[in-house]
Amino acid sequence: MATIGEAARRSGVNIETIRYYERSGVVPCPARGTNGRRDYSEADIRRLTFIRRCRDMGFALADARRLASLTADLRANCADAQAVAETHLATVRTRLAELRAIEAELAALVQDCARRGRPCPVLEKLEEGPGKPG
Q1: Are the C-beta atoms of residues 38 and 68 closer than 8 Å to each other?
Q2: Helices 4-11 and 42-56 sit at what angle, rounded to 10 degrees?
Q3: Spatial distance between the Cα atoms of 125 and 118, rounded to a whole number of angstroms
Q4: Which positions ≥6 away from 32 have C-beta within 8 Å?
Q5: How many CB atoms lie within 10 A of CB 11?
Q6: What count of Cα atoms within 13 Å lies in the side-chain half-sphere of residue 111?
Q7: What is the three-class DSSP state of 41?
Q8: CA–CA distance, 26 with 19 (Å, rounded to integer)
Q9: Nearest 5 degrees, angle CA 61-CA 66-CA 68?
Q10: d(C-alpha 66, C-alpha 80), whole Å
Q11: pLDDT tens, 82-92?
């Protein structure tokens, strides 16, 4: 059994995040020792590590919880895990396309700023309100 500090160190999840995951039901609350402190089992630490890896890959907390629930029988639940991952992959690809567009716009502004100086193209663009042409 491990303390919350040890579970945090071994899983890579900070203590406050572990408490948040417990309150929100992402991970079950661990058993308490006779001293009233949380006692984390190896299974608890593996689940925390699993959730951290999901979050590192950008999965929403609800998706991480869903994926964690599928780990009991990996073969039987592979299709379900694949569906969650495919949805997330589509979201990541959309976000990458959005970031590439932002990158191109920023690069053009920086280049224009280097040529022009005043008025500053960066500040002009950021002052534009919604609906104004870019």
Answers
A1: no
A2: 40
A3: 13
A4: 38, 39
A5: 23
A6: 6
A7: coil
A8: 10
A9: 95
A10: 9
A11: 999 999 999 99
Full-model pTM: 0.78
CA–CA separation, 8 and 17 (whole Å): 9
Mind listing the pLDDT tens digit for each residue in 32-44? Answer: 888 888 899 999 9
Question: What is the C-alpha to C-alpha distance for residues 42 and 78, in angstroms, rounded to an integer?
Answer: 24
The torsion region of residue 8 among left (phi > 0), alpha (psi -120 to 50) and beta comes to: alpha
From the list 34, 23, 35, 30, the residue with the least C-alpha distance to 46 is 30
Residue 38, SS3?
strand
pLDDT greater than 70 at residue 131: no
Tell whether the torsion through CA atoms of 88, 93, 96 and 102 is positive or negative.
Answer: negative
Q: Are strands 38-39 and 31-32 parallel, antiparallel or unpaired?
A: antiparallel
Give the separation between CA 21 and CA 10, rounded to whole angstroms. Answer: 16
How far apart are the C-alpha atoms of 60 and 35, rounded to whole Å? 35
Quote the tokens at residue 112: 């224009």
Picking from 58, 127, 65, the residue whose alpha carbon sits closest to that of residue 96 is: 58
